[in-house]
Write a structure and sequence with these properties.
With about 240 residues, the protein is an alpha+beta fold. The protein is built from nine helices and eight strands.
Length: about 240
Amino acid sequence: MSAEHGACWLRLASSPADEIVTTFWDGAVEAQRQLPRSLPRPQLVGCHDWTAGRWAYRAELYDLVSGRVLAPSAILTTAADLPASWWAALREALDAIAAVPTDRLTIHRSYLSRVMLRHLGAQAFGSEVTAPWTTAHGDLHFANLVGPDLHLLDWEGWGSAPAGYDAATLHGYSLLVPATAARVRHELAHILDTPAGHYAELAVISEILDSTTHGENLALAEPLRRRAALLLKDTAGPRPQT
């Protein structure tokens, strides 16, 4: 509880001072400065930095939003039963985010080219379509979403990514719950059912598959490979920008 702002949420971050990745360290501050306040997200009401020895610390104070986080971790394991109004708000939010100009970068093109070739092979680049890039939240899964009234949490990594990256990320992390994955595909079809959306899905699939080589997201490996096979069967896949 803040005397000035009422009920709030406090986030603390730390990093060795000489290892700070500014994109992520300053993400929340830049989101507050550059993104429309109409986006459904906690507003950053205060920020304080300090150092102790070789460590840097940041305290961020946010207003407290109502509702509940929709999953305890990025990989969804329980169906997300949400009203049509929630999905409509999400579509509107993703469209608004994509329209924001930024020089921030969520993911590097060269990295995506490497991991797509490594995990999906050259067939992922069979089309001559050049995939557009737009602004993305950058980490959109149900652990970063609130319901029953939509709020988007954790803006550390927002920036430029393949168009449809957020929708593709939400779908990829939902594959263990087929009913919710199907709902994502249905509600975000205007994004996913496009050449750019197909590329975004292949990019996200490759990125998550690459994380499995480090022991992360192992439960998603086979569902992701099946989804990639389906996408590559239906389309040769757009060529990534390099």
